Amino acid sequence: MKMLLVTGVSGELGTLIAAGLAGRADVVLASRNPEYGRRRVDFDDPASLDFAGVTTLLLISAGYGEDDVVIARHGAVIDAAERDGVGHIVYTSLASAGDHLPYALPHRWTERRLRSGTAAWTILRNGLYAELLAWLAAPDAEGRITAPLGGGKLAAVARRDLADAACRVALDPAPHAGEVYDLVGEEAVGGAEVAEALGGVYRPGTMAQARARIAASGAAPFQTPMLVGTYSAIAHGFLDGTGGELRAVLGTAPRKALDVIAGKAG
Description:
alpha/beta, two-stranded parallel ribbon
């Protein structure tokens, strides 16, 4: 029997992917936390990286960490997968337009590593989540959105759509071998649109104000530049490109970002 192993199912994207694959005899869910997976796979524990019998590996990126940590994790998983004869690796990466983001480098390194490896591969370049934009542009108690997004917009995509796309590709990877799919939203939205959807007002602040607010929130040191860099990339027009292959991979129309943000999407 072919076996699809899905790693990293304890994260938000992974949880949705796991739900989409639930009950399948040919799928094994893996996580460092046994609560979330039937098999323990800890990217930081080489002894747990056992992929014997796995035909397809869905590698959900381990993006929480400094670049060197994330790269070491991804490299160890790919090395082990090739050692154990995994035939196809499907990787959840970052949208092409995200090259300007502070967390792009580990994704591009992993893509390069897959291209130079022995397993077939498919790269899912995921756009930034509509749910992330909802958090970045959350209104305060008075209904004011002060996120420093300027007049910029984001081609945001529903996390559930990205999970559905990953499931579809991973369950039948052969037709997608060697493909790089840009999975971004079909319309771009910014602070003004979010404010209208939530019944608030948009009064953008500055990057410096956002940096101070994030630093004071208890965020890890590496998270502050990541989040401020995301604000900057949106504000200055680097993430507003729509299109891509999301609709084609899903086989249906994607969810609308504003519906997700307003809690109206299924």
